[in-house]
Amino acid sequence: MTESYYDVPDGVDILGRYDEEFAIILKKDALKFVADLQREFRSDIKYALEKRKEAKKRYNEGALPGFDPATSHIREEEWVCAPVPPAAADRKVEITGPVDRKMVINALNSGAKVFMADFEDALSPSWENLMSGQVNLKDALDGTISFHDKVRNKVYKLNEQTAKLFVRPRGWHLPEAHILIDGEPATGCLVDFGLYFYHNYSAFRRTQGAGFGPFFYLPKMEHPREAKIWNSVFEKAENVAGIERGSIRATVLIETLPAVFQMNEILYELKDHSVGLNCGRWDYIFSYVKTFQAHPDRLLPDRVQVGMTQHFMKSYSDLLIRTCHRRGVHAMGGMAAQIPIKDDPVANEAALELVRKDKLREVKAGHDGTWAAHPGLIPACMEVFNNIMSNAPHQIETVKREDAANITEEDLLQIPVGVRTEEGLRLNTRVGIQYLAAWLSGSGCVPLYNLMEDAATAEISRVQNWQWLKYEVELNGDGVGEKVNKELFDRVVEEEMGRIEKEVGTEKFEKGNYKEACKIFARQCTSPELDDFLTLEAYDYIVLHRPKEGTFKTLN
């Protein structure tokens, strides 16, 4: 009997279970690359996260985010990012989803121009999900990926023509508790980026990037100093791999309120490595509430009323387009979260019409592409963009949006109009609990009420409930004037748990993590202090370290 274990470099400990496939990803040299990134950048990352706390304190004391006078020269001067690589020129429709095997194949085969493979909000970051995701992406780029669906008795393989692969690592704030470097949990995004880059940069540049790449999406940034760290990470990776400076390219999601005032500065820090910005609109709404958690004069209406036609959302989209096109890069639109309604053609057509309308608004505003959560939406989205753009790969040169140069801080902060209702409170509670239950069970991308939900939706639900409870707001849309207090919330939680059990069935309800999810969600909504991220507390529930006894897999 011999024991098998991961061969690790000095200072690295792996606490996740041993698996032969995972061992291919967790090779000693790959782990050394990740550890080198961690050691070089950990003090910068800690400093950036401390600065986030300082900014939060300022906002909680009454300050508002705004344009930084110290960087006005970057906003005012004329400069452009490096030219867009030909392989990333046409991004009219991008599909997003987690890195599970069947999803990777279906998304690459979907007919979209890009597949954003997600280690972030659409993934529950269990050891199994993260490591099998790395295996799946490696197999996809090696061209060997296949999946046998035993239930349908169907084998899935890649088509001749596939979408371009972008990868989204986790945000700076999330740890990777299954890998310790010098006794500390590794930074999640450096694990995601480092392992993927190490194994795939060569295959990607050969098969997908036409000499460029790999390509990435970068989430949750709040300040250009965070973009600067990514730029340094990219430069180090390029040096280690011996590839040209500017090979790696990334699109940054503008999905926090502070970042909207620093789009020029973020692009400037990533000048050689940028391929644009994206409107991460659900997280942006979450960030609006979180930034103004101590501002009772800035309460949002029901979240279903906070769409892109609200003045502060339209201003954000318009300024993003103007900024990107002025700097020579893509301005990507937001997510269409609808999923096909197979058993109701009328409802399905109505949902598709909403998608078309949303995408028409985006392309006419000047966006160069958009996101879809489901392959069934891609033809409708593609048709809208092609009708307006015809054969052009993008609108960088043709739609400059000079009119958006006049957008002010007031425009970007304008309080949205609408009302608050008990149904809004109930929907937040129902969706938040169900999403969290799925996340605890290993699924980060969850179909709920004909929409594909990821962590951003649960975050909006949580922070809005928290804010309404904290200020005991009046539900002014019901005509009753009821106030949101602990008593009402407890009743809503109890009744919505009953409704969830009825909808999913008692057996699934008992087996699922609904009760645990309910405890976490309710605690987060009623805590005196608002937690920065729901997933930080919930992460502790899915970390699974190897047992001390029989730590290693035993081979005969």
From TrEMBL:
EC no.?
2.3.3.9
Give me the reactions it catalyses.
Answer: glyoxylate + acetyl-CoA + H2O = (S)-malate + CoA + H(+)
Q: Which residues form the Malate synthase N-terminal domain?
A: 10-73
Q: Which GO terms describe its biological process?
A: glyoxylate cycle; tricarboxylic acid cycle
Tell me the keywords, alphabetical order: Glyoxylate bypass, Glyoxysome, Peroxisome, Transferase, Tricarboxylic acid cycle
Major localization class: other
Which Pfam families does the record match to this protein? MS_C (PF20659), MS_N (PF20656), MS_TIM-barrel (PF01274)
Which one of the record's GO molecular function terms can you name?
Answer: malate synthase activity
Query: Would you name any one GO CC term?
Result: glyoxysome
Chain ranges of the Malate synthase C-terminal domain: 420-542
Which residues participate directly in catalysis? 168, 454
Q: Where is the Malate synthase TIM barrel domain?
A: 164-415
Which PANTHER family does this chain map to? MALATE SYNTHASE, MALATE SYNTHASE 1-RELATED
Which protein family is named in the record? Belongs to the malate synthase family.
| NCBIfam families referenced in this protein's UniProt entry, alphabetically | malate_syn_A
Q: What name does UniProt use for this protein?
A: Malate synthase
Please tell me the species this chain comes from.
Vigna angularis var. angularis
Gene this protein is translated from: Vigan.01G393000
